[in-house]
Amino acid sequence: MAQLAALFVSKDHRRQGIAARLTGEVGSQAKRDGHARLYVSATPSESAVNFYQRQGFVPTQDTHAELYELEPEDIHMVKEL
Fold this sequence. Notes:
There is one protein chain. This protein is of the alpha+beta class and about 80 residues long. It has a single domain, classed as Aminopeptidase, CATH 3.40.630.30. Helix content is about 35%, strand content about 20%. It is built from three helices and four strands; from the N terminus they run βαβαβαβ. It has helices spanning about 20-30, 45-55, 65-70; strands spanning about 1-5, 35-40, 60, 75-80. The protein has a four-stranded mixed sheet with strand order 1-2-4-3.
């Protein structure tokens, strides 16, 4: 499983599809590298969770222990590639 470690788009460039394209490219690269799933630990804001769900991520109870320990309030999500 690959991890999407960070995704930031500056405020002036949001709502242009940039984050979706970047997420798609990360997923494509992870698949080319032989990974079957992509993991993200998202801030628990409605906008972040909704974004990742629109990209095909679903919440998981099978959390990455180290990431969960660092950010226990985050929403941990996985996408099948």
